[in-house]
Structure formats: structure tokens, C-alpha cells
Design brief:
The protein has 291 residues and is of the alpha+beta class. 64% of the residues lie in helices and 9% in strands. Helix 1 packs antiparallel against helix 4 and helix 8 packs antiparallel against helix 9. The radius of gyration is 27 Å and the shape is elongated.
């Protein structure tokens, strides 16, 4: 029996997740509910929810008869009582967010949030192997050269490539800003405080890039996921491991080559789960936000 290629499986997962999510959003995305009297906080007499894929309307009625309206709608920010996401609502009004989670969610949102948690498991698996894969592949690749004499040319090409691409990106940005001037003439909110690094000259920007390449604590860089620092330290470690030579180089080369093979096996196993991960993430996006 012929098995579909992985990219076709991912495409099928994406289409299926979108189709099921849109169906849930259309038929199960709207719900009007009220918190039972027994579960109301002491100072409130009524709490109602109107959950739609594009917004959530919440009305709070106190025992003295005063009402308060809250809205979760990313398109109407800047007003009092308006939040972009349910997470922001939970930060400002944790009691209301808890009541909404228990009594106010539509079936589409309930299904979508469950799919989101499952999809996040796939993303966590990818993040789990990312740094070990970078470290083992770089160190085993550089140490596979075998001789220190071969490193000079490779190192020169690497530095030249990095500096050239960085200069090209910076020059492109400066040219675009000075010729097109994006943002001018629009209604743009101006920040009250300007970050201290705004207006730094080109040399300062490049020097900060150099500082980022040198981690003061490699273990901290690994924990924080600072990829540029991780890459530079891994390359430096491999180079000096070759310079040490002898049995030390052989043992380290074998160790990181074996580690790379193990991490690659883990990575390929995780990639096989990509159709399911894409399916759950698309289901979440379309079920909670519509088409």
C-alpha cells in the first residue's frame, strides 16, 4: 500500500482542520449564557456572556443595580473595558475570566482551545530538539573536517557571509526608510518614551551584534534559547577541540556524532507528527476566530 508523502499529509491535515474548525465556528460558535445564582461572586447579582468567534460580550450587574460591560475584541482596542484576548481579560479580571471559562465558552471555543493544547504539544516537541540539534550538528560537522588546517578557509567564508548579509540587511533598511519613509502621514501612536538605542549609528549596531555572538554564560544561552550565542560557542568549542588533538578530539568527535544521530532520529519521529500538529492548530485558529 502506497503511503502519502509527508507534505501531502500536512496539506490534508491543514485542510481538514480548517474545514472542521469553520464548521464548528458556523454552527457551534455562538452562545449566550448566564452564570447560575449559586456560583455568582458575593457582590454581583447577574453575569451574562455572549460568545462569538469575533468577540465576547460580558455584562456584569452588581447588587446595587449598576452594570459594567466588558468586551474581548481585538479590533476595538483603546477603549475602557476592551481586551484583545481572553488572556488579557484573565490578567485584569481573573474572576470574570474564570467564570467565562466555566460557564460562558461556546462549544466551538471549547473544542478550539482543546485542539490548541494538543497542537502546542507538537510545538513543544519541536522546541525540545531544536537546541540539541543545533549543538550536535555544528560540533560534529566542524570536527568532521578532521584537520585544523581546513578550518581557516571555512571560518573566513563564514565570517564574510555573515558580515555581508548583515550589511546588506542594514543598508536595505536604511535605503527603504529614507526613500519610502513608511509610516509618515499615517495616524500612528507615538510612544511617550523613546528607547535608548534608537538612532544608534551603524558601527554601534554591528558591535552589539558582536556582543550578542559572545555569551557571558553558555549554559544560560542554552537555557534562554539565544541561538546566535549558541551557534558561536558551538563553533568555537569544535575548533578548539580539533586544536587539542589526540584522543580527546577522537572521543569528543565520536560523542557528538553519536549524539547527532540520536537527535536526528528524535527529530524525524517528531516531524512524522506534523500532520496532526497542523490539524490541531488549524482547528484552533478557525474554530475560535472563524474563516
Amino acid at each position: 500500500m502506497m503511503r502519502l508523502a509527508l507534505h501531502w499529509q500536512i496539506l490534508i491535515g491543514m485542510v481538514a482542520g480548517a474545514a472542521i474548525g469553520i464548521t464548528c465556528s458556523i454552527y457551534l460558535g455562538h452562545r449566550i449564557s448566564e452564570v447560575p445564582k449559586a456560583d455568582l461572586p458575593p457582590n454581583w447579582s447577574r453575569v451574562t456572556f455572549d460568545d462569538n468567534p469575533d468577540r465576547i460580550c460580558i455584562e456584569l450587574t452588581a447588587k446595587d443595580g449598576t452594570t459594567q460591560a466588558l468586551l474581548v475584541d481585538a479590533t476595538r482596542l483603546g477603549q475602557d473595558g476592551v481586551f484583545a484576548t481572553v488572556s488579557q481579560l484573565a490578567e485584569k479580571e481573573p474572576k470574570v475570566a474564570l467564570l467565562f471559562e466555566q460557564f460562558g465558552r461556546s462549544w466551538a471555543r471549547w473544542i478550539g482551545e482543546g485542539a490548541h493544547r494538543l497542537g502546542n504539544l507538537f510545538l513543544r516537541l519541536l522546541r525540545m530538539v531544536a537546541i540539541p540539534l543545533i549543538v550536535t550538528s555544528l560540533i560534529s560537522g566542524v570536527m568532521g573536517l578532521g584537520q585544523a588546517s581546513r578550518l581557516g578557509r571555512m571560518f573566513g567564508h563564514t565570517v564574510l557571509y555573515y558580515v555581508s548579509t548583515s550589511m546588506l540587511a542594514i543598508i536595505t533598511g536604511l535605503v527603504m526608510v529614507n526613500t519610502i519613509s513608511p509610516g509618515l502621514g499615517g495616524d500612528v501612536h507615538v510612544a511617550t518614551s523613546v528607547p535608548p538605542d534608537v538612532g544608534s549609528h551603524l558601527g554601534e549596531v554591528l558591535f552589539r551584534q558582536l556582543e550578542t555572538m559572545i555569551p557571558p554564560n553558555p549554559v544560560r544561552a542554552l537555557a534562554d534559547g539565544n541561538f546566535l550565542s549558541i551557534i558561536c560557542f558551538s563553533l568555537a568549542f569544535a575548533v578548539f577541540a580539533i586544536l587539542v588533538g589526540g584522543r580527546t578530539t577522537e572521543r569528543l568527535r565520536d560523542l557528538f556524532q553519536d549524539g547527532f544521530q540520536v537527535i536526528m532520529a528524535m527529530t524525524m519521529a517528531i516531524i512524522c507528527l506534523a500532520p496532526l500538529g497542523v490539524f490541531f492548530l488549524m482547528l484552533y485558529a478557525t474554530a475560535t476566530q472563524g474563516a
